[in-house]
Amino acid sequence: MEELIELDHKLFLYLNNLGSETWDGMWIVISDKWMAIPLYALLLFLLFKKFDWKYSVVTMVCIALLITCTDQMSNVFKDFFMRPRPCRQEGVTEFARIIAERCGKYGFYSAHASSTFALAFFLGSIFKKKIPSLIGYLLVWASLVAYSRIYLGVHYPGDILIGAIFGILYGYLLYLLQQFAVKKLKLV
């Protein structure tokens, strides 16, 4: 386990130090959850454009459950494992570029990675027949958001990887729930 943690620290320092002041502002914007509102608005528009309103409402309820699940489960893991973030880790902060203005106490696993990958997988699955290429674009977006957390100095790559895995799992489970609900309500 110690070797894995050491590898995570080294990979973090490598990826984090690829940054430069020129790009800092862009990565801060990518990481800011409020900056994704135009994307969410576009996805909401597409949802109502491609599906009827009842189907869309059931899907929105599932999205609310999905975001709640990803956020709360990451908090449970953070409180259980109590792994310090890189921006609070002695022996790491001295060599890292810490760009984030705030740094929470614990970082395992990344809620940003979990929620963006969950949304990407869930919505990509919802739209797979109507807009097949959407999942690819959403996964690229999720990957950029996830990397931004390393760039800003608030998560290790392991935090991101586990967050992404759990996000995809939650996205898949909520997709199954959504499909069950729309069939039960005879919306398809």
From TrEMBL:
Keyword Iron: no
Keyword Membrane: yes
Transmembrane region(s): 25-48, 55-74, 106-127, 134-154, 160-177
Domain (Phosphatidic acid phosphatase type 2/haloperoxidase): residue spans on this chain: 59-175
Keyword vocabulary terms for this entry: Membrane, Transmembrane, Transmembrane helix
Pfam families linked to this entry: PAP2
InterPro entries: PAP2/HPO, PAP2/HPO_sf
Gene3D superfamilies given in the database record: Phosphatidic acid phosphatase type 2/haloperoxidase
Protein name (record): Phosphatase PAP2 family protein
Organism: Zunongwangia pacifica
